[in-house]
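Technical annex, item 7. During the second reporting period the consortium partners agreed on a shared format for inverse folding records so that results from different sites could be compared directly. Each record opens with the tokenized structure and is followed by the designed sequence. A conforming record, contributed by the partner at site C, is shown below for reference.
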């Protein structure tokens, strides 16, 4: 299988860590243009984040712009044809699994089976407190939520789960997902998150691991799965440095990998050599038009050079 490539959507989340200035005034038409460009350019997925509310203490860094992932991905599903729709990540412990299953099963049904459910433990204490969820036990909550979601997103019209936190049976939910098995990718880079991904996930979404940490994390996942006797496909992810295809005529930042297609491809091929299956890319841009152009050039010029 060749190296897959996907991208986090702009506009939808606007943390100061990565948002470009032009995104502040952007909206629905910009999201549509970017998603359609990614669809045309062969991207495996477009992704949206999940936050219910940002406390004042974090608002200056994180901003309060966080579009709902289910609503956003559903909106984009109707405007695209093949690109998959990833929640990166859904903080599923904030909601009852049956509610989450109803939303994401509907999205998978309406999109013709294009959902990838990315899940994570979350990190904003105030979100948990206001919704009545134990922040300190969020790891355990996520563990059981994944089990409950596996049941609720399975083939059964009347799913059943009996756990410590959630207990349900006899409640039918249709429509069912279009996929026989909705892929669940687990996000996070702490030891607990990496182990959770290995044991419970179909893939791993790292959270900012630099290149030199990835081989160790990948080896840990493989070892845990082997020790647990877990077989079958598993998608290992990475998040690349910011990219700019071509010679930039503006300051794209010292961490940005820029240059001709071969230079970009060589940088990404190093991830494949580590054992990575999918890499999330992000492009520096000064406008929607420049971003759409970068996406197109990547798909046409860089992607054919990837293994």
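Designed sequence (site C submission):
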């Amino acid at each position: 299988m060749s190296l897959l490539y996907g991208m986090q959507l702009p506009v939808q989340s606007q943390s100061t860590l990565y948002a470009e200035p032009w995104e502040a005034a952007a909206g629905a038409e910009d999201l549509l243009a970017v998603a359609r460009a990614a669809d045309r350019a062969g991207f495996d997925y477009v992704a949206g984040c999940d936050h219910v509310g940002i406390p004042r203490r974090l608002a200056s860094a994180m901003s309060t712009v966080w579009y709902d992932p289910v609503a956003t991905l559903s909106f984009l599903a109707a405007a695209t044809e093949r690109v998959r729709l990833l929640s990166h990540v859904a903080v599923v412990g904030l909601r009852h699994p049956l509610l989450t299953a109803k939303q994401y099963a509907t999205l998978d049904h309406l999109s013709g089976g294009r959902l990838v459910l990315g899940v994570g433990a979350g990190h904003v204490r105030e979100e948990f407190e206001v919704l009545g969820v134990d922040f300190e036990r969020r790891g355990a909550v996520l563990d059981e939520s994944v089990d409950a979601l596996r049941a609720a997103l399975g083939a059964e019209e009347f799913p059943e789960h009996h756990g410590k936190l959630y207990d349900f049976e006899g409640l039918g939910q249709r429509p069912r997902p279009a996929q026989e098995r909705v892929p669940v990718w687990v996000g996070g880079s702490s030891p607990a998150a990496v182990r959770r991904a290995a044991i419970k996930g179909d893939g791993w979404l790292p959270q900012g691991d630099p290149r030199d940490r990835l081989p160790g994390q990948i080896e840990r996942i493989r070892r845990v799965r082997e020790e647990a006797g877990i077989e079958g496909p598993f998608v290992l992810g990475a998040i690349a440095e910011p990219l700019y295809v071509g010679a930039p005529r503006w300051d794209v930042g010292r961490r940005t990998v820029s240059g001709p297609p071969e230079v970009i491809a060589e940088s990404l091929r190093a991830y494949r050599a580590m054992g990575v299956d999918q890499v999330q890319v992000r492009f520096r841009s000064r406008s929607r038009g420049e971003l759409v152009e970068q996406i197109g050039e990547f798909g046409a010029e860089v992607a054919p050079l990837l293994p």
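The chain has a mean pLDDT of 97. The CA atoms of residues 106 and 175 lie 6 Å apart. All partners now use this format for quarterly exchanges.
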